[in-house]
From TrEMBL:
Transmembrane parts of this sequence: none
Top-level taxonomic group: Eukaryota
Protein name per its UniProtKB record: PUB domain-containing protein
SUPFAM superfamilies, A to Z: PUG domain-like (SSF143503)
Chain intervals for the UniProt region annotation (Disordered): 148-171
Coiled-coil segments: none
Residue ranges of domain PUB in the record: 28-95
Pfam assignment, any one: PUB
A GO-annotated cellular component: cytoplasm
Biased composition (Polar residues): 149-162
Amino acid sequence: MAAADGGSTGVLAESLSTMGSQPWEVQEVCYGALLKLLGNVVRNPGEAKFRSIKRGNAAIKAKVLDCPGGVGLLLAAGFVEEPEVYVLPESAPLDLVQTALDQLQSHATAKSDANFRAERDAKLAKEKAIDAKLASFGGFARGVHKLGSGNTPPADVQSTDAAGSVATEPK
């Protein structure tokens, strides 16, 4: 598969970088919509409905066009901006779309993994802070019970006989 030309590759990298700097919730929605749009073009290259994206479509606007970097990615994939739509001309090489799709998929996966790790690390840090606080009070942090001052047995042992009298015996 032929790679995209240098200009498209630069715009694509810049668009991905811009999208990647957005909050994860924005990125995730944009990645999902773009993967679907570009995937439809690659799977059905002859269908005109997949080569045209209406700018007035509220869902497309909210998910892709309002996301910084979303329009740039469409342009890098070969779409052309017209007054009402973004159109992928019949003459546009599908290699551009496939390259954009592949790089978008790779980028989205990397960002998703990074977000997962960040959430996991934050959760672990929170749990460690809770454990440290519990440990500072002397107990019950993750099954570690610090009930006594150490492992030394008491000096005297008290026992009760059947009559209820208490006797202290040295150990």
